[in-house]
Amino acid sequence: MGILLFFALLAMLTMAGRASRADFSIISxxxxxxxxxxxxxxxxxxxxxxxxxNGLDEKQKRFTVFKDNFLYIHEHNQxxxxxxxxxxxFADLSHEEFKATYLGAKLDTKKRLLRSPSPRYQYSxxxxxxxxxxxxxxxxxxPVKDQGQCGSCWAFSTVAAVEGINQIVTGDLISLSEQxxxxxxxxxxxGCNGGLMDYAFEFIINNGG
Length: 209
Prior knowledge:
Layout: H1 2-19, H2 35-48, H3 56-78, H4 95-102, H5 153-170, H6 178-184, H7 197-206
């Protein structure tokens, strides 16, 4: 039984890896709720993401978090929802740890550009607009990027917007450089220590973008 379960786990991870090396998409399997099975999955996940911890105590602590996240994913995926959850490189972090490490904008609102709102994109009565648009289907969204632990969400969101509007206008989806904004847009933005899209758009305009 243990050997069969191991190969079932391995097959599942192999199929998930073919879809996306960074995404272990776990749908459902009742056997995977057992501690031994979750530990085997944990070891495979560690190898996939090249994780290493300082000592067995830390590894066990991370396993406890991993198990909680896995069971949450398992329960979620049993429901009739429009999306499925999966295990990624953050599966050994608690919700609080993830927020403390990867979330939280650092903004100096006193310096924010003050402008009157533009009516350009405001809805006007009589306009025949679609109920929704999925720009992914129209090829205007680049593949997902990872900012790591650098607080540069302002650069990533700016670049994503520019990539999208460029594709809509020209038909070409070109992946642009967030790093250029992080390194060069330093008048108001602060690299990995935070910034605002407003300043980044101004930087692009002022530099011929």
